[in-house]
Amino acid sequence: MASIQIKDMSVSYNKGKSYVLDKLNLDIKDGEFCVFLGPSGCGKSTAMHCIAGLLHPASGEIRFGDTVMTRAGAKGRDKIFVPPQERNIAMVFQEYALYPNMTVRENMSFALKTKKAPKDEIEKRVSYMAQMLSIEQLLDRRPAELSGGQRQRVALGRALVRDPQVFLLDEPLGNLDAKLRDQVRYELKKIQLQLGITTIYVTHDQTEAMTMADHIVLMKDGHIMQQGTPNELYDHPENEFVAGFLGTPQINIFSCEVRDDVLDAGDFRLRIPQELRASLAPYAGKRVDLGIRPSDFELASSQENAIAAHVDSIEPLGDAYLIYVRIGEKVVVFKYTGEHAPQDRELLLTANMKKLHLFDPQTQERINQ
Amino acid sequence: MQNDIARSKEAQQAQTVRVKPRWHMTVLHIVYYLIMIAFLVFYMLPFWGTVMTSFKTNSEVMTTTPIMPPRQWTLEGYASAMEELGQPLMTSLLVTLFGAAGSVFLGSICAYGLSKWKFRFNNVFFIALVAATYLPFQAILIPLLQTINALDLYDNVWGLVLVHTVFGMPMCTVMMRGYYADVPDALIRQAMIDGNGVWQIYRKIVVPNTKIATITVFVFQCTSIWNEMLFALVLGGYDSKPATIALNELAGTMAAEFNVQMAGSLILALPVLVLYIFMGKYLISGQMSGAVTAS
Ligand SMILES: Nc1ncnc2c1ncn2[C@@H]1O[C@H](COP(=O)(O)OP(=O)(O)O)[C@@H](O)[C@H]1O
Ligand SMILES: [Mg+2]
Asked: Predicted ipTM?
């Protein structure tokens, strides 16, 4: 078990013409469940392959605990590279990579056998994990005879039977159907807590990240946009990208002008609350982006700060309604948690003034604290 | 994948059943078959003649046409042929098996290195190997003979084994590199993560997943070594003379004993034929299915 430290790591697939990861810095605590989150192609798998020792970064350093695993870009004897087979990691690849010549049981036992673990110990772990992932009945089949979801669970089980320093899981639930995904997600989190092994989990699915992570690293184009606990990222996005990436439905963004003590969005005006005055002072007379999450609207009970909205359509979610409304020309989503959907086509909404997110339109950075 | 194929076959069958044959289709089919039969006869006639002649007595060979079946079937020809070919066949067998095994083994290791690991001058090695497969053997015959002499391996089975191992290796490498390229890199990476080094990966992952490729290349090597004459002639000497040379001498020394020559040819051709028939069942693809996602 180990913490993981990454210092100034840069990776290039074309000998320095362009960098897929650019001076990445990262600290993952021992036993933490860390999720790399970001759109496809942002470099999550690349970062993970570097940690596994499958890729040589152009520069930078990777440590497990106090041991340097990779040190690149240095000269001569300072260069260090521990090969993957000596890093004691378990990994699930995005492509599963099951050994076609082995049965599921042999696939799952392979790493332990390589480490010469005792036979009954292997047996015990494999059957325990097979049960956890409901693949016991598949143990004697070969990968070719499995469906995509089954293969994925086998790949996951093959990693989890081991007792590594670090788990590296690259979109391990991507191919499961929704119900199974929820179930496996729950099992996986439970197993990880139980084993207490440092885990890095790659996904592009923000729900997975929010529900499982102790620590989210949100990436875009090879840069870390923000990292922290799921709540920190959700409640306090440091830039518009983070605000837009987390939360379904997406946050609503309005372009507003700061005038005297109001935020003027054209179609509605909000009185600037006391606690935002200081941060908005430099923006007097300029425009800012105002973000309001769908769940931070409610039906107005008074005229103050009320926003006139015209209902476009209503989607029942079971426990809530997603109401698509038009404010002026702009379509806005509002999550309504009342018992019955409102009957009126014309509504008055208010925003939760404590949960406004303000961003600089130029830098996209957060303005309010 | 296999399911898909099975399904599409069913679909095809269903279609063929539904189409009613029209008269001009039938005529066309008859023409097709006539052409095919003509070609079959054309190709098979010499073989037929060989088989028939091999079962005739020497006197009957003189008096009948080759394609006539013998009036009196006899194994005389085979007996005489075996007398001459017995020892050379053993030599050929040894040279073929060890030569093919050696070149496949070396080729496989080279191919593994070249296809799965990056190292400096990787490409230079590969180009050199490809060039080696185009090397005309005649061009290096004299120096080779001198080398073999110096090694004291002239007229020695192991000399031939060595030469075939070395000269077969480039071709084996080129062929196997193609097959190994189909082993997904993800499998290699996974095996590394699972704690395996370069050789363990070769032994536990690459070789077991490319059995068919190995068999195919092995059979290919066996055939070419078995049928080879140039090295056999130059390096084989007298005591370790391979069967191809012995067969050739049959034609030279016993003029007009066509039954013996034909029997000898068939004996020589038989192992290759058998090998190909048995290999057929290994040529089913789909070995890698299930390894990685289809994307
Ligand atoms: N083997 C490779 N060669 C060249 N470019 C690559 C390779 N692998 C990934 N890339 C590029 O690097 C970027 C990051 O890829 P990746 O780490 O796989 O993203 P993610 O896992 O976040 O979807 C992408 O733009 C991709 O095109
Ligand atoms: Mg990826």
From this structure: 0.83
